[in-house]
Amino acid sequence: MITNGFTYIAVLLLLAAVLVTLEKSTGWKFFKFIPAVVLLYLLSMVLCTLGVWDMAETKPAYSALKNSMTYAMIFTMLLRCDIRKIIKLGPKMLLGFFTAAITIMIGFVVAFLLMKGVIGSDAWMGLGALCGSWLGGSGNMVAVQAALDISEADMGYALVIDSIDYSLWVMFLLWAIQLAPKFNKWTKADTKLLDEVSTKLADDAKLNNKPITFQSMILIIGVALTVSAVGQNVGAFLNGSLSFLDKATWTVLFITVLGLVAAVSPLGKVAGSAEVSNLLLYTVIALLASRASLLELADAPAWILTGFIILAIHGVLLLLFSKLFKLDMFTAAVASLANIGGTASAPVLAGSYAGSLVPVGILMALLGYVIGTPCGILVANIMKMLA
């Protein structure tokens, strides 16, 4: 069993390297159905389940790196983005976001009605807190807990669902990206604007054909890590002064602004930002999956089943509304994860689809923080009336 934090990180990066190398060099058709990024998520979960590393001993390494790498990844991905073109996607993205949010709320109410005889009529409290998290983030979960005076025991069940069900949903959405062409054809989605924006950003990137050098790589890495470090300090400061948003939200907002500004500066034309952002992307995905043990499925199985029912209802309704509103795969998937995963994973999914569209994931996830607490409390009270 691995107890050393450095060894734990090294194994995850080696796993990512092996999978990417196999995908790029072998030409196996297998990777067309299960991309390397999905395999990385799945195998990291399997290794965690098998107890390859000690969760307690390696937690400091995970805690020190996960958020820091996520913030650095967001910054480097934003270096390739022109926000003036992204804004053109606004109306459809908002429709997708609120469609996802409403279907999640419906999922909680229906799942509670179906499962309250098993998980208990007081389960509305824990599910209400979880709803706050799945509409916004951890800060919203804590806010709903405080507002409804939810016990730590009920919160424990909510956290188990949040860990297992959320992790599998992220893996599913990462896998589903490859189905985008078929999905868009089925929904008759007009992806012209999305394709134009994505293509234009990709073409702009190709125009910058400067060679990747040691100097360009170390510049991007150094700036990205520094922005991540400074951003976290700024986030903590702003959270202490303006506490209506949590530290993570302030940090993401600050780094997003810096990234968008840097994208139109000479730094945005430095070669290597795509390669560095992909490296950070795979690192973050491996870290996220490495804390989700499949053994937790044995803990509170009825609650975990409730979580899957919520996701199933959300998924089916989102599918139907996507057909009705002619939403494309990118809009539907990122909207879903912007709610359920927040700023931690929505940019990851957006970046996996197209690195140039990361700001969409960030902005949609930030919108989730706005609605998470009030809507979580609303859903909790609806379930309470139905208890």
Question: How would you characterize the overall build of this protein?
Answer:
The structure is a single chain. This protein has helices at 5-26, 30-33, 36-49, 55-78, 83-86, 90-119, 124-135, 138-148, 152-176, 180-187, 192-207, 214-241, 247-263, 273-289, 301-325, 329-340, 346-353, 358-386. It has 387 residues and is mainly α. The mean pLDDT is 84. The chain contains 18 helices and no strands.
How do the helices and strands line up, and which of them pair or pack?
Elements: H1 5-26, H2 30-33, H3 36-49, H4 55-78, H5 83-86, H6 90-119, H7 124-135, H8 138-148, H9 152-176, H10 180-187, H11 192-207, H12 214-241, H13 247-263, H14 273-289, H15 301-325, H16 329-340, H17 346-353, H18 358-386
Helix pairs in contact: 1-3, 1-4, 1-14, 3-9, 3-14, 4-12, 4-13, 4-14, 6-7, 6-15, 6-16, 6-18, 7-8, 7-9, 7-18, 8-18, 9-15, 12-13, 13-18, 16-17, 16-18, 17-18
Query: What's the alpha carbon Rg, rounded to whole Å?
Result: 20 Å
The dominant shape is globular
Count of individual beta strands: 0
Which structural class do you get from the secondary structure elements? mainly alpha
Multimeric state of these chains?
single chain
List the helices and strands in order: HHHHHHHHHHHHHHHHHH
Please state the average pLDDT score: 84
- As a percent range, the share of helical residues equals over 70%
Sheet of most strands:
none
